[in-house]
Design a protein that fits this description.
Layout: E1 9-16, H1 27-42, E2 47-54, E3 58-65, H2 69-87, E4 96-105, H3 108-124, H4 138-144
Helix pairs in contact: 1-2
Length: about 150
């Protein structure tokens, strides 16, 4: 029996090579990856970015796609790998693992749970005491957005 799910939204989690150097531990590299993720939303309009975190050895994204998943993956992985490899003075070498993991979000409750999981990841890993203090995350990025003035009507 088919299940009626009005708005399925995919999430993606990408891992760097677990057995090699942990380049994402370097703030310049993590920043480059975070900027690429933000640009995919703000500049390229490939997706609406809901939540993300760049951890020392993997990345989590929650997006609402506006383009096919392979195009999004190619953009984020391709651009961030080129930029990171330039910073690392490496050429022609893989930066990301080939595979990525994605899944469908089937309810608002599940979406909220995933956002919490993504943004709490640095706290769980003892990288920050609060999600908003971890620089390479949506929690930090949201903290920097100006709050609109309160209007009374």
């Amino acid at each position: 029996m088919p299940v009626d799910v009005p708005s399925l939204k995919p999430t993606a989690s990408w891992n760097t090579r677990r057995w090699g150097p942990a380049w994402l531990k370097q703030s310049q590299i993590a920043g480059c990856v975070a900027e690429t993720i933000l640009d995919g939303d703000r500049v390229r309009a490939l997706y609406s970015l809901i939540a993300f975190v760049v951890m020392p050895n993997h990345v989590h994204l929650l997006i609402e796609p506006k383009a096919p998943a392979p195009k999004i993956t190619q953009y984020v992985k391709g651009v961030s790998a080129r930029r990171a490899n330039e910073l690392l003075q490496r050429t022609g070498q893989p930066f990301w693992q080939d595979e990525s993991f994605d899944r469908w979000v089937r309810s608002q409750r599940e979406r909220e749970k995933i956002i919490r999981y993504i943004e709490m990841n640095p706290v769980s890993a003892n990288l920050a005491s609060e999600p908003e203090l971890f620089r390479f995350s949506s929690a930090f990025a949201h903290r920097l957005k100006p709050v609109p003035p309160h209007t009374t009507g």
